[in-house]
Every structure is written in C-alpha cells, then in structure tokens.
Design a protein that fits this description.
single chain, mainly beta, SH3 type barrels, Immunoglobulin-like, 2 domains, six-stranded antiparallel beta sheet
C-alpha cells in the first residue's frame, strides 16, 4: 500500500399439477411476494444487518445495513412456511421457522440476501429526499448533513481520546474532498498519522495542516485527500493519531458507510 505524505435460478421442475423446486447449494429461489419495500427491525443500535451472497449465515458478507433503515427493495424470499404449513404448525414450530426465512433485497446498489426475521414492511429509501430537503441522514457509522439542493458534509465522532474529536469531509474542488479534524487544540510540532486496520496510509506534521484558528486541522482538496479517501472507502477501522499537549492520542473511526456518505457529499447539485 502506498503511503501518502502531506505536501500541500432458480431451478423448477413443472409436473402437470405441481412445481417442485430443487434445492442446490449455489442456487436459491426467491418467491416474489410480500411488500415492495422492507425496513430493518430487531437490530441493535450498535449492530448492523449483514447482506450475504447466498441465503445462509455462513455465506460471504457483501454488505451491511444500519438498524431501522427503510428502503430495502424486496426481490422475494425463500425458506418460509407456506400458509398451509403455518396453519398446522405449533407456535414453537412457527418461531423456529423464522430462522429459515431469507429474503433477497437490493440496498443502495448491493443485491444479496438478509435474514428474514430482521425485516418488516417498510417504505421507500429515506435518503431519496436528501437532495431536496435539509436534514441529517445516516450512512452506516457516518452522518451526512444536507441543505436544499446538495449535501455539504459527512462526519463522525471518533472513539477514544481525551477530547471529543470529529473527522469531517466536505465537498472540495473537483473530485477531491476537504478534510477537517475538529477537536483541538493540537500541537503543531507533532505528527498526524492515518492508519487503517494497523496499516499506515498517510502521515504529516500538524503544522502543515493547521487551520487558521489553530484549534482544528485542515487538509485541502488535493491528491493526498483523494488517496486517503479512496483507502477509507475500502472499509475497516481508521486509527487517527493526533498530537496533544499530553502526548499523542489515537482515535478510532468506523468506516462502515463511508463510501456511500462521501458519494452523497460529492454528488453534484440537482
């Protein structure tokens, strides 16, 4: 990894009277029923609903959905009891059957499977209004603040450190974002270090990126911020080390949802 330094089927056999679905390890059939949209339910505030490549808890994870999210497009479910089976089943059997239900969904460009027990009928995506209304919207661990016509910043409060610290991205020139580290004062003679899951991505002297007021740090739109943002879009945990009077402190930022949040901020005004 380059280190950046600061310088400026469904398979169905149809008989005369019946259709029999053959279960194969890599093929899953989703019955196209239920609501148009799902919402996430039963997921804790610090957890996510995993999207998987196949309807199985051991299948590859290909995405994650925050709790209480609306706007999961319903592409059908599999593994649920038929109405006749449900009528004959005991309450215990019905409860166990919930764990067998998997639903195929589309969420922000990702199509995959989620556990049906964490879904309820919902509405269209909440963020469809972000280009026309003011407000704050969640994208994974990130918050995006929008004004009428555009979304202007994505930010997150970090975990750890003696002072609440915010990492904020704003729309800059072209495709490069501006980056603000809020929560100073910082020691200008110390180093600011970005690592992702323990791998060094970028570093530089705080004095080079010190904001005018001396309390925050600022990285202008350039190749450095583009490179850092691209590494962050891959996900993981960002460890940000900043210099304070008592010594260097490391603050953690969850990168879940960062790519979507930054894309929203970088989207042109409609």
């Amino acid at each position: 990894m380059e280190v950046l330094t600061f310088r400026r089927l469904v398979l169905i056999v149809v008989a005369p009277a019946i259709a029999v679905m053959l279960s194969l390890p890599s093929i899953a059939h989703a019955e196209a029923d239920g609501p148009d949209w799902w919402a996430v339910t039963g997921v804790g505030p610090d957890d996510v609903l995993n999207i998987r490549a196949e309807p199985s808890p051991s299948a590859d994870k290909i995405g994650a959905i925050p709790p209480d999210t609306q706007g999961l497009r319903n592409l059908g479910c599999t593994g649920a009891m038929s109405y006749a089976e449900w009528e004959k089943a005991t309450e215990a059997e019905r409860e166990r059957a919930k764990g067998n239900k998997w639903c195929k969904i589309e969420y922000r460009g990702t199509t995959g499977w989620v556990a049906g027990r964490y879904l309820m009928e919902g509405g269209p995506p909440q963020d469809e209004r972000t280009d026309s209304q003011s407000g704050e919207y969640s994208f994974g661990a990130w918050k995006v603040f929008c004004e009428p016509g555009s979304c202007v910043s994505a930010y997150q409060y970090g975990r750890g450190g003696s002072v609440p610290t915010i990492l904020r991205f704003k729309r800059g020139d072209g495709s490069a974002p501006e980056i603000f580290i809020e929560g100073g004062p910082f020691v200008p003679t110390g180093d600011v270090i970005f690592t992702i899951d323990g791998k060094l991505v970028s570093s530089g002297r705080a004095s080079i990126i010190q904001a005018v007021d001396g309390d925050d740090l600022y990285l202008p739109s350039d190749d450095i911020t583009i490179g850092l943002a691209r590494q962050m879009e891959k996900g993981g945990t960002l460890q940000l080390t900043v210099p304070r009077e008592r010594g260097a402190e490391t603050i953690d930022f969850d990168l879940d949802g960062f790519a979507e949040a930054l894309q929203r901020v970088n989207s042109p005004t409609r």
